[in-house]
Amino acid sequence: MPTINCSVESCVYNKEKICEAEILQIGGKGANWTESTCCETYRDSDDVHNNVTEAGETEEILCKVETCAYNVNKHCSLSEIEVSSHGDVSDYTETDCLSFERKVL
Question: Domain DUF1540, which positions (predicted)?
Answer without folding.
Answer: 4-42, 61-100
